[in-house]
Amino acid sequence: MAIEFSQWRPILPLPSRSCNNKGLSNSNTAMRPTAAPLERASPLCVLLIEDEPQSALYMSEGLANAGWEVQIASDGAAGLAQARSGAFDVLVVDRMLPEMDGLSLVLALRDDGVQTPVLFLTAMGSVADRVAGLKAGGDDYLVKPFYLDELEARLQALARRSTTPLRERTLLRTRDLTLDRLTQSVARGGRTVELLPLEYKLLEFMMLNAGRPVTRAMLLERVWGFQFDPRTNIVETHISRLRGKLDESGAEPLITTLRGVGYVIRAD
Q: Domain 5-166 is classified in which CATH homologous superfamily?
């Protein structure tokens, strides 16, 4: 469900957790080691750099319940000090922070050689804001309000790609299809594919889940923000238009309909 802070209630007390047991140096210039596969026994570690206590607790509680080890920093300076250890698999950084703003924090980390993946979390949702965050060294961008399960899925995806060069983390690829999340452009086989905003959002979500079925209900919730079925063919119409643009000139179809389930976009 989407975070609605006016409706938030604590569910379980957050257990005391630490991400400092990875055997890393505490030097301010410590490089982050090669990440282990997600199938490892030890939990993934995330640092939440968020100054709004209710938001931080909501996220930490949800991620802890999903199996993450969580630490919280309530301002930019403290967050920078903790993140410099390289002891985290991924960072969640609010754009607007006391002491040091999120962009300056990430720029400082990258200057120090710390390559931990960063997800910016903010209410600033314009294209210019997203581009600024990605150019500063961020790897993903999530606009408030958001769905907690989407946050967790994006963090898992960042952790999986954490050994990939920074520029490539903004690129999604499947077969000969490429989606550039920095420029919000799409190309197939070297041909530029012009998409409308909702078509782009639909394709982005499907490529983030390449090889996995996505249901109609998931698409309605994640792409259109509906928490109910409007009883229209809005999903089917947009899938049809997207197929038409991706599969021009007789290209091999990439999106498959799974009868009674939903859709899947082919993985490599």
A: Response regulator (3.40.50.2300)
